[in-house]
Structures are given as structure tokens and as C-alpha cells.
Design brief:
Layout: E1 2-5, E2 8-11, H1 22-26, H2 31-40, H3 51-64, H4 66-71, H5 75-87, E3 93-96, H6 102-106, E4 111-115, E5 120-124, H7 127-165, H8 169-177, H9 181-196, H10 208-221, H11 231-245, H12 247-262, H13 273-283, H14 289-308, H15 312-332, H16 348-365, H17 371-388, H18 401-404
Antiparallel strand pairs: 1-2, 3-5, 4-5
Helix pairs in contact: 2-3, 5-7, 8-11, 9-10, 9-12, 10-11, 11-12, 13-14, 13-15, 14-15, 14-16, 15-16, 15-17
Length: 432
């Protein structure tokens, strides 16, 4: 016995007599469902027909065009038809219960029985349909099998690509090695700033964090080397322990690392880098801060000129070149910069630094640079300070108004830096 269940015909026993006609199975459908099924294969049925006449007309059309009917099926449906051919008369093919084979069900080319204990669907096909489809099924089945193989291959490749693309402990080292040195500096700096500096977690190896920080500092101090130190090993050791004992710390860190790696950070490399560094090396020969200032002040004037010419990004890049040179100087002669914090009378090199600070704040307040670009400026400035301690210890630069103004948003800064002609800490900007 068969009955209509929602959009398909169900049989309610473990066996079914497949010698019944296709038209007799269509009679379980209502007139609207028969018209709908006929429209699916391109057959228009008059609504004035009786249900029996509709079923007969649709059956006759389907059996007369078996190759066209098979062409409507998807690959999985074609392979099910092939299995039903192999099952023979009264044969039932059992499949895992899935929401599939919609065309076969809607056209009543198969009848379905759900076996609750096994959670499987049994499918049967009447003999006249099997006989009609038989001459064309093998060709269609070969093509369907090929399509499914390609689909599985693409799905597997997509899954592999997704796993490779998603950051994890397994691919972290490889992902870090693909980063250029400048981006790697930012990633490690951000990791320390957000996950290490204020970490209250007690590691099994109490020297792990100290080792990581010392390794990072040593790497940053190697100014002439573009080869990264083995920082990735420390990061992986930290993440391994967090993953084992505090998964929330691990998941937050992995999420942030992936974001920092994928962020398109601004490259502040300047075309004037070689000129500035050569002038710095020449100025450092005599170990005299006044001589060094005389070598660098012309570049300070160049930054101001670039700003006036509205070449803001080039001005920022040159500023960072000069900050880097003065930072290296601070490592060698920290006493030269004591007056920058107002602890003694200003000398020539701190006047140079004060002018650069003012220009930086001017650019930081300027509408000609986007908010994202200014955020990248902040990040680069904090890393520069972490490398040299030019503006004091720490990386946040928020311990006094002089340095906080360099990274705060315009509305939060202590003063206006719009006028490039006003004096700086008692010195005229144009003074040498």
C-alpha cells in the first residue's frame, strides 16, 4: 500500500510490488500536484482533465521521453536510479536518511519508506520506469560519478585551503615565516603589548616570558639584520600551554594574531632613508651632539617643506627615519636627551627632537591623513620607542603630555599643533 506523504509517495512495508503502473502511483497525488509535476517536465495539462486522465497523460509523456527525463536529475539521483536498476524487480535500495532526491520523489519516479530503527530510507521504482530508463542509465551514471568525484575533490581542496588559511598551532610558524620583517615586528609587538605585558598567568617555565621579551629586544637591536630571531618558538610555547590549561587565553591570542597578520599595515620606508642614515653616520663621527644636530636639522626643514607642499605621507616616512636615527643616538648617548624631559637646559640635539615631535603632532592632527593611517603611525611610533627608549621607557607613550600628545586623537591632545611658525619650548622653529 502506498500513500502520499507531503511531497512524495510512501510505501509502508519492507517490500513493494513494482509491477504496478507509473500512472497508478500518480493517482495518489491530487490534481494540483499532478499539474505541478507535469509542469516540471514541460508538459501543460488542462485543469478540466480528471485526475485519472492527468495521471495517464503525464505517465505517457514520461515513458515516451526517458532520456530527457534522466537529464533532469542531479548526479546523486542518477546513481540511485542505477542502483534501482541493479536491484531488479521488487528490489528495495536503502540509503541513509537525507533530504535528497527531490526530483525523483516529486515526479513519483521512486517511492520511499522510512525505517525508523535503522534511520534509513528505502526506495523502489516501478518496472515500466526501470525499463524505460535502462538504455540510457549507464552513460548518465558514468557522467554522474565523474561529477561527484570532482565535487568531492573540490570540497576536499576547499577544506584543506580553509584549514591552511585558518591560523592554528600547526601552521603558525609557517605563517610567521612568510611575513616581512616590518610586519613581523608589529605582530610580535602587539602580542607582547596585549597578551604578555600584563599577563597574570603563571607558566610552568617561569622564565618563558622573560626569554621571549629578551629575544624580541635583542632582535630589535640588530638594526643591520633583516633575519628574524627565533621568536616564533617562544610564541608557540606560550600558546601551547594556554591551549592546554586556559583555552580562553589561547583562543583570544590566536584570533588577535590572525587579525594582526592579515592587517594591511602601512609601510613607512622612506625614499630618503639612505641620505638620512648617511648624514647621521657622518654626524656621529666626532661624538658631538651639536655636530650631529647640524647634520640632521636640514632634514627637519625638509619635513616641514614636505608638509607645506601637502606631501604628508612622505613627510611622515622621513620623520620616522629621523626618529630612528635619534633613537640609536639615545642608546649610545642617553645623557644628550635629558633636557627633552625638561630636567636641564635644552641642547642642540633635543631642539632637533622637539621640532620633530611638533611636526609629528601637526601631522597627527592634520585632516589630510586618514584615521587608519594615523593609527598605523601610532603603532610604528610605539615600536620605534620600544626599540630605542627615545621618549622614555615603555611602549604606550602616555606618561607625560609631551609624548601623550603624539599618539592621542586630535580632540584629546593637550594643545594645537596647527601653526608651523610658532616657537617650540622657547626656540623659534626656524632657529638652527
Amino acid at each position: 500500500m502506498a500513500t502520499q506523504t507531503y511531497s512524495y509517495i510512501a510505501f509502508h512495508s519492507t517490500t513493494f510490488d513494482t509491477s504496478v503502473s507509473y500512472a497508478s502511483n500518480l493517482m495518489y497525488l491530487g490534481k494540483k500536484d499532478i499539474i505541478s509535476a507535469a509542469a516540471l517536465v514541460g508538459l501543460s495539462l488542462p485543469t478540466s482533465y480528471t485526475r485519472e486522465k492527468m495521471a495517464g497523460a503525464l505517465s505517457e509523456y514520461v515513458l515516451a521521453n526517458p532520456e530527457r527525463m534522466l537529464a533532469m536529475l542531479d548526479a546523486e539521483e542518477v546513481l540511485l536510479v542505477q542502483e534501482l536498476m541493479a536491484a531488479g524487480k521488487n528490489g528495495v535500495v536503502w540509503k541513509r536518511h537525507l533530504l535528497k532526491y527531490h526530483t525523483l520523489k516529486r515526479m513519483v519516479w521512486v517511492l520511499q519508506n522510512y525505517d525508523k530503527p535503522s534511520r534509513k530510507d528505502g526506495f523502489v521504482m516501478v518496472d515500466e520506469l526501470r525499463e524505460a530508463f535502462a538504455p540510457f542509465i549507464e552513460y548518465r551514471a558514468e557522467e554522474a560519478a565523474r561529477q561527484l568525484d570532482e565535487k568531492k575533490k573540490k570540497k576536499k581542496e576547499a577544506k584543506k585551503a580553509e584549514l591552511e588559511g585558518r591560523l592554528s598551532l600547526g601552521n603558525l610558524k609557517a605563517r610567521l615565516r612568510k611575513l616581512d620583517v616590518e610586519r613581523l615586528k608589529i605582530v610580535h609587538f602587539q602580542f607582547m603589548r596585549h597578551h604578555i605585558d600584563f599577563c597574570s598567568y603563571s607558566f610552568e617555565d617561569e622564565w618563558l616570558l622573560d626569554g621571549y621579551c629578551m629575544c624580541y629586544n635583542d632582535w630589535l637591536s640588530q638594526q643591520e639584520s633583516d633575519e628574524p630571531c627565533p621568536l616564533d618558538g617562544y610564541v608557540i610555547d606560550v600558546l601551547k600551554e594556554w591551549k592546554r590549561y586556559d583555552y580562553s587565553l589561547y583562543s583570544d591570542a590566536i584570533r588577535d594574531l590572525e587579525s594582526w597578520m592579515e592587517t594591511d599595515w602601512t609601510d613607512f620606508t622612506s625614499v630618503h632613508r639612505d641620505r638620512v642614515q648617511q648624514a647621521w653616520k657622518e654626524g656621529m663621527i666626532g661624538e658631538d651632539e651639536q655636530v650631529l644636530a647640524q647634520h640632521l636639522l636640514p632634514f627637519v626643514d625638509e619635513v616641514k617643506t614636505l608638509i607645506l607642499k601637502e606631501e604628508y605621507q612622505e613627510a611622515v616616512s622621513m620623520l620616522f627615519c629621523l626618529f630612528d636615527c635619534l633613537g640609536r643616538t639615545n642608546v649610545l648617548h642617553e645623557d644628550w636627551f635629558e633636557s627633552f624631559q625638561g630636567t636641564c637646559e635644552m641642547n642642540h640635539i633635543t631642539l632637533c627632537l622637539s621640532k620633530l615631535r611638533y611636526l609629528y603632532c601637526h601631522l597627527r592632527q592634520h585632516d589630510g591623513l586618514s584615521r587608519d593611517y594615523k593609527y598605523d603611525m601610532d603603532m610604528h611610533l610605539m615600536i620605534t620607542n620600544y626599540m630605542h627608549g627615545l621618549f622614555g621607557c615603555g611602549c604606550e607613550l602616555d606618561f607625560c603630555s609631551l609624548t601623550a600628545d603624539m599618539i592621542c586623537d586630535r580632540e584629546e591632545q593637550y594643545g594645537s599643533y596647527q601653526n608651523l611658525s610658532e616657537d617650540i619650548m622657547g626656540y623659534e622653529f626656524d632657529d638652527c
